[in-house]
Amino acid sequence: MSAGIPAVLIEAFSDRPCQGNGAAVVALPHPVSDAWMQGVARSLNQSETAFLVALDGRWCLRWFSPTCEVPLCGHATLAALLALQHWERLDAASGTVFCTRSGRLPVGLSGALAQIELPAATLQDAQPPAELTSWLQQQRCSVESFWRSSMGYSAALLTPESALSTLPHPPLQPPEAAGLVLMQARPEATPFPLVAGREADYQLRFFAPGLGIAEDPVTGSAHALVAPYWQRHLGRQLVVGWQCSDRPGGMICETASSGMIRLSGKGSLLWSGHLQLQSAGSGETAARWRQLCTPV
Questions:
Q1: DSSP conformation class of 140
Q2: pTM for the whole structure
Q3: What is the pLDDT of residues 125-174, one digit of tens each?
Q4: Separation of alpha carbons 106 and 18, rounded Å
Q5: Catalytic annotation on 188?
Q6: Strand ranges (DSSP E) for 93-232?
Q7: What value does the mean pLDDT take over residues 172-178?
Q8: Does residue 142 share a domain with residue 48?
Q9: Are residues 193 and 77 in the same domain?
Q10: Looking at 48, 69, 176, 215, which residue is catalytic?
Q11: Cα-to-chain-centroid distance, residue 116
Q12: Any idea what the CATH number is for the domain that residue 175 is in?
């Protein structure tokens, strides 16, 4: 039997085992079909599975939830970076760039921290859906502000006294079902967890039942979306976000020279092995990867 296809499971945005957001990463020998990747993602059953392939001298990266392909995933990008480090296929001094459906994403290592850059979308003021407001009020939570974004995510700022960490999963309808961030500032005189020695400034939770994810444990794209708000609100470039899910984790957020949001965090390797599967490809499959992962 052949050695198989290298695969790992990394728990991203946490330095402790069995916390953070688990992502499987698969190192493909060549481009494979969407159906093949979707089947593997469904079997591995993580919130996201990342598929890496070296194509035309660059790393191409795609992400699949158990039910669909997603255009952007932060924690699985960080996991892919750490997977390349584990496989000794990364120049730690210079980092690399992932070519994805969301454009070129620079990644690299800085001491003990892994760093990824994700695009940020503008938060646009909106009225919260009446049914969401009513449900939150039933949970003794109050909405201060509400936004939608071109990313497809919505975001709500809750009052500091709202019990965000103990909320049950909200009943969401489109467009909020595609991704809802509920967040709040750190209450005065209330300690928040530390991320790389820095106390968190805000915390959030992220729900995306429309993507097959009832709740995502730690969501890089959600923090990249709201980090500019917290930078303006707190009047500083560097802010620290925490995700208070049942598998918590956090990250340092700052604006990179590219204009994207740089997220810095840690990750833990849970397992490393090989998939015992055939990975047939074709010219048509490779052309699709090139089309989807063309740098912009």
A1: T
A2: 0.94
A3: 999 999 999 999 999 999 999 999 999 999 999 999 999 999 999 999 99
A4: 27
A5: no
A6: 96-100, 103-110, 113-118, 123-125, 143-149, 154-158, 180-185, 194-195, 198-199, 202-208, 213-216
A7: 95
A8: no
A9: no
A10: 48
A11: 10
A12: 3.10.310.10
